[in-house]
Amino acid sequence: MITIAKTVDEVRSIVKGWRKEGLSVGLVPTMGFLHEGHKSLIDAAVRDNDRVVVSVFVNPTQFAPNEDFESYPRDLNKDAELCEKAGAAVIFHPEPSEMYHEDYSTFVDMRTLTQVLCGKTRPIHFSGVCTVVSKLFHIVAPDRAYFGQKDAQQLAVIRHMVEDLNFDIEIVGCPIVREADGLAKSSRNTYLNEEERKQAVILSQALKEGLSLIQQGERDADKVKNVVRSRIGTAPLARIDYVEMVDFKTFENVKEIKGEILTAVAVYIGKTRLIDNFIWKG
User: Fold this and answer.
1) Do both 11 and 145 map to the same domain?
2) Number of domains in the chain
3) Is 35 one of the annotated active-site residues of the chain?
4) 282 in helix, strand or coil?
5) What confidence tens digit (pLDDT) does each residue in 4-34 have?
6) How far is it, in rounded angstroms, from Cα 16 to Cα 19?
7) Which domain holds residue 198?
8) Which of these is catalytic: 38, 93, 125, 160?
């Protein structure tokens, strides 16, 4: 039976016990409503470590007032079943008051990487992400932590934060997990109605076209972005937030496609904001 720890003291006590036995610890930070994408992270963590903690916490500090904090899908029983089957040992499921006391006023801000892409339209988002992930790192003190490439900007931000703040933690990035038709798995996919779900596949189809152009030798970033935008525009319910190509280390926009490049999109399908990307090295 998987252990569900609700307090900082409880999860710390468990991890200290593992450390006394000389066991390695992996952490998979999540906001819950777990799917196959999360399972792939847990599988990797179980493979690499003796014990695995999965945090299930919808973090209020990364949501703006007009965003979906209250409506974000939650199902702890289903999450616990998936975690137990995957081999995780503990779910850390605190209340917001456990993570942020009444007078809480300390946040982790990053001056680079967070001003573009999702950070441009969600200005408080990455401060909330960095703050909660830093807290989880201090609470669990894992050897390794696992993040998915679907949130590629988040992955880059966390890696940069770990380097900046000297966390002794290995950050492991894991590939995007997709539905059979190509849609990147996301907890927010549950917001889509039947027609929206059909049209949502346009994100992966458009990115596939862009990648194909690069593989054929195209090196003009604007030409590739225009192809991606045009394809997304064929879906009547799609509204583009951004289509960008950036250097995956600096997150500066690129004109010429060379080095390690992140091509990322954020698109509203109806009222639901979805993201997807690919990374190309050349």
Assistant:
1) yes
2) 2
3) no
4) coil
5) 999 999 999 999 999 999 999 999 999 999 9
6) 5
7) 187-281
8) 38
